[in-house]
Amino acid sequence: xxxxxxxxxxxxxxxxxxxxxxxxxxxxxxxxxACASFxxxxxxxxxxxxxxxLQSLKLTFLTCTASSILxxxxxxxxxxxxxRFRFRGRSVIDTLLDIPIVLPPIVVGxxxxxxFNSLPSSENSLERLLNGQGTAVTFHxxxxxxxxxxxxxxxxxxxxxxxxDQLPERTEHIALTLGxxxxxxxxxxxxxxxxxxxxxxxxLAWARALGEFGPILIFAGATRGxxxxxxxxxxxxxxxxxxxxxxxxxxxxxxxxxxxxxxLRFLGSRTSNN
Amino acid sequence: xxxxxxxxxxxxxxxxxxxxxxxxxxxxxxxxxACASFxxxxxxxxxxxxxxxLQSLKLTFLTCTASSILxxxxxxxxxxxxxRFRFRGRSVIDTLLDIPIVLPPIVVGxxxxxxFNSLPSSENSLERLLNGQGTAVTFHxxxxxxxxxxxxxxxxxxxxxxxxDQLPERTEHIALTLGxxxxxxxxxxxxxxxxxxxxxxxxLAWARALGEFGPILIFAGATRGxxxxxxxxxxxxxxxxxxxxxxxxxxxxxxxxxxxxxxLRFLGSRTSNN
Amino acid sequence: LWALWPSLESSQxxxxxxxxxxxxxxxxxxxxAERFEAEHDITIRLVFNGSGALLSQxxxxxxxxxLPATADYLDQASxxxxxxHPTSSMTAVxxxxxxxxxxxxxxxLKREDIRLSFAVENAAIGKFTRQVLHDSEDWAAIExxxxxxxxxxxxxxxxxxLGAVDATIAWDAVALQNKELKIIPLPLFANKPQxxxxxxxxxxxxxxxxxxxVSYLTEEESSKQTFRKYGFGSVAAD
Amino acid sequence: xxxxxxxxxxxxxxxxxxxxxxxxxxxxxxxxxxxxxxKTTIMEAICGLRxxxxxxxxxxxxxxxxxxxxxxxxxxxxxxxxxxxxxTVREHLAFGPSIQKWNxxxxxxxxxxxxxxxxxxxLLDRYPSNLSGGEAKRVALGRALATxxxxxxxxxxxxxxxxxxxxxILSLLKDSIxxxxxxxxHITHSMKEATQLSDKVIKLGxxxxxxAP
Amino acid sequence: xxxxxxxxxxxxxxxxxxxxxxxxxxxxxxxxxxxxxxKTTIMEAICGLRxxxxxxxxxxxxxxxxxxxxxxxxxxxxxxxxxxxxxTVREHLAFGPSIQKWNxxxxxxxxxxxxxxxxxxxLLDRYPSNLSGGEAKRVALGRALATxxxxxxxxxxxxxxxxxxxxxILSLLKDSIxxxxxxxxHITHSMKEATQLSDKVIKLGxxxxxxAP
Lengths: 274, 274, 238, 213, 213
Ligand SMILES: Nc1ncnc2c1ncn2[C@@H]1O[C@H](COP(=O)(O)OP(=O)(O)OP(=O)(O)O)[C@@H](O)[C@H]1O
Ligand SMILES: Nc1ncnc2c1ncn2[C@@H]1O[C@H](COP(=O)(O)OP(=O)(O)OP(=O)(O)O)[C@@H](O)[C@H]1O
Ligand code: MOO
Ligand SMILES: [Mg+2]
Ligand SMILES: [Mg+2]
Fold this sequence. Notes:
The complex is a heteropentamer, with two copies of chain A, one copy of chain C and two copies of chain D. Chain C is an alpha/beta fold.
């Protein structure tokens, strides 16, 4: 349809669509500008050269990638079964999935801290058990990943359920007649058709993980060089009244993450546009 | 297919799906229990009877509902045009949409504060202009709604774009031959088919708005009885060391929001299952 | 939806004060502000956050009063404020969960098996305790036991109360909010109470009203009582 | 009268060049040709659903080449039906008329008339997902006929029907075309059907001397 | 041999009761009947895609009533094709054989043989969205034939094809059925096609004395 010029009766439609959408996009642009208005060139270059920031940048990308891969690994089967199977407790599970979205992230962090350290008692806790095995979660890198994972899996599952709900089951059924078992029908027929949706969910999860800081501060701390990620660095800068520093790290975060996401989205659209 | 018993070759598939999904659901349940372990019956009933909490409950539901309606109003046309039209700057807009997801919410709040109060200068700011007109945003209820709206619109748009991408354009084209202009084809053909996706996006936005507190603390403050919403109450309780209080409010939040969401989802599935 | 606007308009007619208040002072300040509002028919807008985050906020949006948890932040904000008035004080103490680790004094924190939570250097408590412990040459031995660094004093107290660490050094007022915690006074800090002061901001458009509230806060007996009730020490009047 | 004047169409690798033909008002022309020869492509181009690289389309002496589909006063029964999943059969039949703001009693009358003609009266409250193949085809036909279009495009609109239904609908179509002066273009693979319904049969191979294989 | 023994099917409001018939191995039986009479419903039930409330289905003396579709050794050409949007034509033809773990050279041979028989060799690298109606039908046919199923279910599998292609494919199907001993069930509306391909024609109305209108 893209070849026909819009007629007069379509103009109000295009006009109001662009106006509404444009207003929000303008708001976003203004927000970035507002954030950048506090930036000075020196703080920006300083930030880029600070070894602590570079270290936390590395940790940020590593943990976010790990947690979003884990999140996809869980949310793909979870959303698939919520979409395709009718089993006892299905709607309860569907409802439980809203908890990490509804709860302030800080409560999620606190709950994780309680779960690992004071249940059933602080002498008998999961963390003590793990420490006995020579590992540790609380206040270490695994805590970052677990905190991110807990929250983003719920977002990824919600997003993926929309995808699977909209994919017709019919092609899977035909695959069954051709000799597939349920796993093969899922793997060879449903999953490839869901690929754009899975990419979108994965990117959403990754992006959401980047912005997470509440639960990380509580469950992993913000020990420099050990558990400090970019979002917690930003929080600490704001908490010391250092706005230029916070603006600089925020812009680094925006630039790096948006370019990564655009690149992945571009690659994804190339492979699915066969 | 639900009438046929799974054969042996399908058991590993069902097994591993339930295992993976079940592990996450168990984690969520444990989190709620961990949170509840700090609860005493007295704090819970006290919380339910406290006029300040009831007031903030009311404000929470009102602002979240307002902001998610606004968010749908913006994200439906925005995601529709991103999905259907190829225009200049489309991929830039698509990328900008990730900003509110990537940025730590607290930075969003700070940017809003800067935008309204210190651009171009604090004497000449938007807020001053509004004050001159007899209204105010910063530190008032509209700031809560604006902070929530800024963030959840991005989530709703991402979720809706998946929906529109998966809806075939063909039926809209046929509607055009029957005399529809683009708006009518959108309104009468595309939108009703997208209804489950719109409901899902709206609920996601609403849930996400409930959990928001970083930008609200910064842009709207948390004055008791005026701009205190449940999520900020929880943050403040935690910050004054009152964990039982925080747990009580969190559980109130979970109970009320999950039942609201389940109800809406149930009503939505009834209307679309014609 | 429009139900949300009237509350805004009614508050427009009254004079109002914006007070940036450290989250740890929330309980006493909410009480006192509500009393003051009732007595004087004005609106007090309390903006809570960490002391540092408040500093960021007030740089951007102006306001009338700033009450950070410790005086340090007032030094940082010196170019934004006119006068400061002490309201209450806090003392650093050793905070434990129970008897389990047999910690009785500062030296016990240097033992092998102890886990500590400490606030970041930028937080008031973090800066203060590091300074004092450096001077007394205890810092090196204690530092090696620090398991986690948290952004605010509240977070470190939380860690102790949840059993994630064994001890922390925190403000008595903050620790006292949690009844289950055990508090041990430390001789090293006992004679160094830190004053919490409220400052009038240069950006204030209602200086007179602000002064009125400050004197209510610092001089009225009911206010002092409220501070004491929540574990804050009193200060000698200027 | 529909007249196609040397239109060329490109869709992906597939190209059609220099297609010309005319269809008189009140008559039907059948378009035949091997599978994949471009019949559907031509029909969708006439409806404005595919891009035309050159040439002109005139309908009743009006140049519709660059009009939007909604302004061409035509309707199509697509090969794949493309029913609206969220509308009942009744709403399908009412769709065109109500977009064109007919008044309610006219619409109701039209629905009843078409539903009887298509033998789908018992299906009026069904949704497309609950229809059989032939039932869906008839709904698509009814939807297209409802607005009394100037041009009716039938893309294998009569396949998948049993003989009785086929004959009934064929005669209903014939009547509509003659009585309402509709111009009809009809794609079919059945020579018998073509000769029954239409006054002229065009073989696609004949139109296009230099078609790519 | 396929034998259907008094099966009953319910799908929504539509009910079929007490259907029985048999099809000999190496032969084809055509199922005819008015549109909406339940032909597709019966066929999908045989394939295990719809619930049977009572009755038994035997294929080559094995009771397949409660087997999963994958264990029934049959394949179907659905009325709506239901091609896999993410696979090329070649991958459609290879799908069944590679699931059944044929070795690669056998698969390649089978693909070439089928593609030639269906005249779709030039389409092997296309995706379904770029196929015409008749081309898609032939791909669905090829996909179903590929695994040499014991039972072949053809739901209007030869509609939408031009006469030449139709005849070619008809004879290919006839050969396969006879030579490979396939049992075939065929739904069509064309009596001519039915008599050409099959040894027996079943009218759905005759099977079911007490059908709801
Ligand atoms: N989207 C597309 N991209 C590329 N090629 C296409 C596309 N759609 C159709 N084709 C090709 O264009 C040719 C014409 O297709 P068209 O659907 O017009 O055929 P047709 O004459 O209607 O055939 P049939 O009788 O099988 O329906 C076919 O060779 C088809 O493979
Ligand atoms: N999902 C469904 N729910 C309710 N009724 C259905 C459903 N699917 C089909 N039907 C009805 O069942 C009947 C049989 O449908 P079926 O598709 O088997 O017909 P058919 O004989 O194949 O017809 P056709 O020749 O038109 O394809 C029809 O009346 C149809 O309306
Ligand atoms: O108010 Mo603070 O940041 O806990 O010192
Ligand atoms: Mg065609
Ligand atoms: Mg059928």
